[in-house]
Amino acid sequence: MLSDIRSGRIAAPEFLQGLIDTLAQRGRAVLGMKPERRAGEDRDLALLGEALLSRRGEASGVAIAQSLLAAFQQAGEPERLKFLCSLADRFGPDRRAIELAIAAYQRKEGGDGSKLEALHAAAEPRRQELIRRLNLAPGGTASLVRMREVLLSLLREHPELQAVDDDFVHLFSSWFNRGFLVLRPIDWTTSANILEKIIRYEAVHAIQDWDDLRNRLEPPDRRCYAFFHPQLVDEPLIFVEVALTKEIPGAIGPLLDKSRQAIAAREATTAVFYSISNTQKGLAGVSFGNFLIKQVVQDLARELPNLKTFVTLSPVPGFAGWARRELKSEASAAIDDDTRRAMAAIEEGGDIAQAKEAITALAAYYFLKAKLPSGKPVDPVARFHLGNGARLERLNFLGDASPKGMKQSYGLMVNYLYALEHIEANHEAFAEAGTVVASDNVKKALRAKLSSRDLVPSPHTNSQRKISS
Question: pTM of the full predicted structure?
Fold first, then answer.
């Protein structure tokens, strides 16, 4: 059965799910619980949590978990916030237990190993065990992902919930370990239920209609892959769309053109990853995108030995916002007088083609010199691909001339190259030293009058040190 689940032949252990449902029903009968919460009925979610932690019986525990999750789903925002706050304080670590465990460890009675284990167990917040037990309910994993989505929506105004979110991430990182994920191809024969979600979740280049989706899935030079989890049977966690081409593309329009002429997969030399979309907001921060890219590269290389080049055609979502902030600063190290005049003309509705040199040079600075306080690039897409071991290969002026592309990046797109023989070395260089591995063409885009000033820290990049490009 486990091998069937991993291979994707069985999407979920249906017989086990049926047993859990039966346990929940019997548990409700034992506890005298109503099957559903009545409209207007107020239920203390924290008390349900305490009851769940106090139960030892399997059936009663599953029933309480199911009831708590259903009640949270039906609750209004004030009641949800109250429960999440109770997770932060009421279900935190048991301070008295920690004090006793520390005292026992310091006395070193019974051996250091057992006392250290006892201290570790005492220090674990009670909410972690509560979340684990909630996960046993039918549909518990999906419900907890939705619960964290609610938590994330409240986190900015309620920073006291950060510890709760940290525990969710800790547990989700184990539950959504790469070993549990199943890579499945998505094509035009995939179930309509999943295809509808691909349309809905596409976050980079919106899918306009079913014809648009078909154009991305059915031709022989198109591929799509997604990661699934056995507990989220019909919910893709992340998916990537791939175009098979004869050269590295510099614009997204031709790739998405419905009237384009498809080529045979065996004629292609290049695999282009042009859209990667995370689908579950509740799994933000649980990274499996790097595994997706690397496995798809391996699978494609095995299926089509004629493929020699693996690249992305990526958006630059933060470029325009960063550039506008730099333009407001008279002390910006990224902006000289010529660039300022060219960019100002664009903002006033001028011809963007006249600003090609300025935009390209500014983009090179953005990728190679603009840094977060951590020393990593400002651009989130760059951090993702460079962290995966890719190389910044090419800057594409007007690669995305759509309204969205013009707004977020003045139409700029970039190619990241995944060279199989250099991925690990590039990853190590980025992870250890923050090195942005870039092609000579990208480096040359930094004009001399910009590169000669690049050691001056920009007030909007918070650069604390010079990172090698």
Answer: 0.82
